[in-house]
Amino acid sequence: MYPAEETSASSFSDNNGMRSASASASVVCATGPLAAIDTDFLIVPWFSDETAQAVAGLDAATGGEIGRAIASKEFQAKAFELFVTPVTDRDWRARRVALIGSGPGERGPELIRKLATAGGLNARNRHVARAAFAVRGTGASAELAQAVAEGLTLAEFYGGTYKTGEPAPAAPPAWTVVVNDTNDAATSAAVARGRILGECSNLARELANEPGNTLTPREFARRAAALAADAGVSTEILDENEIEKLGMGLLLGVARGSVEPPRVIVFRWEPPGAPAAPVLGLVGKGITFDTGGISIKPADRMELMKDDMSGGAAVACAMRAIALLNAPMRVVGVVPATENMPGGRAIKPGDILKSAAGKTVEVINTDAEGRLILGDGLWYARKLGATHLVDVATLTGAVVVALGKVTSGLFGNDDAWIDLVRRVADRAGDRAWPMPLFDDYREQIKSEIADMMNTGGRAAGSITAAMFLKEFADGLPWAHLDIAGTAWAEESKPYQPKGPSGVAVRTLAALAFEKF
Ligand code: BES
Ligand code: MN
Ligand code: ZN
Fold this sequence. Notes:
With 516 residues, the chain is α/β, with parallel strands linked by helices. The protein has helices spanning 58-61, 65-71, 109-125, 141-154, 184-209, 217-229, 240-245, 249-255, 310-324, 370-383, 398-403, 415-428, 461-470, 505-511; strands spanning 26-31, 41-46, 82-86, 96-101, 130-134, 174-179, 234-238, 263-269, 279-284, 286-290, 330-340, 352-354, 360-362, 388-393, 408-412, 432-434, 452-453, 478-482, 488-489, 499-500. It folds into two domains: 6-206, 3-Layer(aba) Sandwich (Leucine Aminopeptidase, subunit E, domain 1); 210-511, Aminopeptidase (3-Layer(aba) Sandwich).
């Protein structure tokens, strides 16, 4: 849980001269009553079974329009349905009210975050300058207010910065999050927190959206380190010589097929006075483009493989959030970064690589490159003193078959740790579901010639990938999030445009505030 104290928002832009992908307006907190909120567009979540009188005075302020719309079924509060009507009461300071329907289901932070994003996207499309969002729902009001600030901020992401023919999108509105709460300091701190977490999620989306030709491993390392260092994280970028000295044969093996040299991005957050342990170790997959290598992928949809560094971006942007929110514990982050290309010096099926941990790997399929670079990444996080590990990776197509596009796969070697990661992810709006790692699956990656193979056949593909990673956790509590399905939205939803999602940023950041 986050402490109830003040934090101040801070934005960051480093796009090599490009217009920033997430325009920053502002999000502030105000205490009701709603009648006193001076705004152009007052968004109010509306739950499906509510009568017109559910929000005191609102129906009357619209001259009874809300009551009429509900009675005639013009407005049924279906999920994300919007009903906009003028405020006619001169004693109210809002010009228009927009009810946004909840649909059936739970009315907690998860739904409220989505309603805020949907409302935010709508307000932005209407070129609204000043908008407000009323916090409603079940749960602690600070948690709801944080979710609203996150959701509104997520609506500010824009992925079209390379379009030259289209006018720039409207600047997002300046937001007021309205709470009717007496504990002002705690809720405004929650709003500030939500703002930071939303901004850091958007930075990760910006990185994932960046094409492979601009975001090479070197450029990825530069940007990832800069955005974390800007917030006070110590960063270091290891080049190919340092990587070789460390013996990271798996990462070097994958990098061989590319003319672009690999990098390892290292982050350290060491707040003064923090206890020596625990040390949270975050490891993210940083493949800036995955062609599959010699086991080359089919052309269809290969362009999406520019997002194969989403896990690494999540780690970098979570490190930024951890620093901005002043997390009390030590955290180390490790992001191995490389392209996976089929160059003339590329690794071939049958090749054997030696990991920094000393274990040997027979490469059966060069497209199973994520687990290779993460093996060395996990080893390095341990070497830097991590006591608890979490890795995040767009690792397998198989996890999309198993869980689809809305749930990340969660794997691990320690039930208590898996359970904590799952609960934290849930609260952060990054749904993850536990998958088994029974010892029996180890059989599938047995090699005739080396300590293990890098693939285990078609059956249980996301599990055998995780079994491979488990070899490198060396008994430390370790959890693995397979975000291959959740990192990129292929269909737009009212609360989520097509494109990068920023998944796992908020989960990783929130973990640094937990007790373990
Ligand atoms: N980056 C891919 C996984 C992926 C697939 C992410 C689809 C997003 C969408 C990964 O490196 C990969 O290619 N995995 C292979 C493993 C296989 C060769 C054992 C896969 O899932 O097909
Ligand atoms: Mn691959
Ligand atoms: Zn990959």
